[in-house]
Design a protein that fits this description.
The chain has 159 residues and is of the alpha/beta class. Helix content is 37%, strand content 13%. The chain has one domain: Rossmann fold (3-Layer(aba) Sandwich). A four-stranded parallel beta sheet has the order 2-1-3-4. Strand 1, helix 1 and strand 2 form a beta-alpha-beta unit. The longest helix has 23 residues. It is globular, with a radius of gyration of 15 Å. It starts with a strand and ends in a 5-residue tail after the last helix. Pfam families: LMWPc. One of its GO terms (biological process) is response to arsenic-containing substance. Keywords: Arsenical resistance. This is Low molecular weight phosphatase family protein.
Length: 159
């Protein structure tokens, strides 16, 4: 199964989702990320945090949802609400769910406060992904309605 983490810029939250998911996923499950208006570069704060957590970002890049190397089975949008973001809506036949996370790339304050914003986003995404991967995936991959309900439930979880 292919999971797409989708946001606008594809430099921070969707990248973290892709990297965390691929780091933890069982064989046969793969994540990619994309944006509706990709920035063309990865956020250095997100990359540094992932590397600090032992998660590789090698080979990852900011890309458009128009240039996906595969067709997703599941699309998880990760746009937040605080910055009045317009979250892209994937129109393909994939199962869709919203896992809103505030964008740490827009955090302001001291260096510690900004790092804390990145860590908060990381923890939320990691917790949701861990809970996702703890589901009975073999049962759910062919039960779209049940999987959709679980994904929607997970999109509201906080660590």
């Amino acid at each position: 199964m292919n999971v797409l983490f989708l946001c606008t810029g594809n430099s921070c939250r969707s990248l973290m989702g892709e990297a965390i998911f691929n780091h933890l996923a069982p064989e046969g499950w793969r994540a990619i990320s994309a944006g509706s208006k990709p920035l063309g570069r990865l956020n250095s704060g997100a990359v540094a945090l992932l590397e600090q957590e032992g998660i590789s970002t090698e080979g990852y890049y900011s890309k458009s949802w128009n240039d996906l190397p595969l067709t997703p089975d599941i699309v998880l949008s990760v746009c937040g609400n605080a910055a009045n973001e317009t979250c892209p809506v994937y129109l393909g036949g994939a199962l869709r769910s919203h896992w809103g996370v505030e964008d740490p790339a827009h955090a302001e304050g001291t260096e510690e406060e900004i790092k804390a914003a990145f860590m908060t986003a990381y923890r939320i995404l990691r917790h949701r992904i861990e809970q996702f991967l703890a589901l009975p995936l073999d049962e759910l991959k062919d039960a779209r309605e049940r999987l959709k309900a679980e994904l929607d439930r997970l999109g509201n979880l906080l660590p």
